[in-house]
Design brief:
Its EC number is 4.1.1.36, 6.3.2.5. The protein is an alpha/beta fold and 229 residues long. The chain has helices at 35-46, 73-84, 128-137, 159-172, 212-228; strands spanning 10-15, 20-23, 26-28, 50-55, 66-69, 89-92, 99-101, 122-124, 146-153, 176-181, 192-199, 204-211. It binds cytidine-5'-monophosphate.
Length: 229
């Protein structure tokens, strides 16, 4: 049986990728399916939390979870900050585009007369996790709210990935960072995942590659342990 250890807690989960409009028919996106975030949302709900899932994913909404649909990083930011204003825990499993086209074309981009591609200039998207940390510092997000980020790493999962994870955790200023290996054929869209759960007090939990449900359980266990000690 599941622990009912998140009863009365408000949990916000973001999941899936973002879509950044190029023109009326095209977007910049990524391969994130939303499965990991959905697994976290479903389990948090089953463990008693009131869960808001902010997502671009069209996966079925887990029981008793409130879903908010978004497409772009800026929509994700707006909805996440609003939901976080009353949250106990925010878990940012979404794969957010770091950049978006600087100008969205009103009409479909055409090839140049010489057949050359049109140039798409990019501009930076806001870092939502950094914005959550800043909002918490000024009281717009409760000071007791636990912030969990993800770091998707491709390639090896050796010491360097952990080192990068540590550095990223410090840089982002969140409480936990889940470091997982991703790639077209490994994690995205698949049912298994694994990695490390790093916490800002120096702790690290290795989660062997297994199901996204198991990683979800380990993340929630770690967050509950932090909030009850
Ligand atoms: O810096 P990096 O993209 O690796 O950080 C990953 C974490 O930061 C994830 O939790 C992701 O949801 C979050 N992030 C964000 N806004 C961005 C980029 C990443 O919230 N623009």
């Amino acid at each position: 049986t599941l622990p009912f250890d998140l009863a009365g807690k408000r949990v916000v989960v973001t999941s899936g990728g973002t879509r950044e409009e190029i023109d009326p028919v095209r977007f910049l996106g990524n391969h994130s399916s939303g499965k990991q975030g959905h697994a976290i949302a479903a389990l948090a709900s089953a463990r008693g939390a009131e869960v808001t899932l902010v997502t671009s994913s069209s996966l079925p909404v887990p029981p008793a979870v409130t879903k908010i649909d978004i497409e772009s990083a800026r929509e994700l930011r707006e909805q996440t900050l609003e939901a976080a204003a009353v949250a106990d825990i925010v878990i940012k499993a979404a794969a957010v585009a770091d950049f978006r086209p600087a100008d969205v074309s009103d009409s479909k981009l055409k090839k140049g007369s010489d057949g050359e591609p049109a140039e798409i200039r990019l501009t930076r998207n806001p870092d939502i996790l950094a914005d959550l940390v800043a909002a918490r510092a000024i009281g717009e997000v409760p000071s007791s709210c636990v912030l969990v980020g993800f770091a998707a790493e491709t390639g090896d999962t050796s010491g360097t990935v952990l080192e990068h994870g540590r550095a990223k955790l410090a840089r982002k200023g969140c409480d936990f960072l889940v470091v997982n290996e991703v790639g077209r054929d490994t994690t995205f869209g698949k049912d298994d995942n694994g990695g490390w759960i790093l916490d800002s007090e120096g702790g690290e939990i290795l989660v062997e590659r297994a199901s996204k449900d198991l990683l979800a359980a380990r993340i929630l266990d770690a967050v509950v342990a932090r909030t009850t000690t």
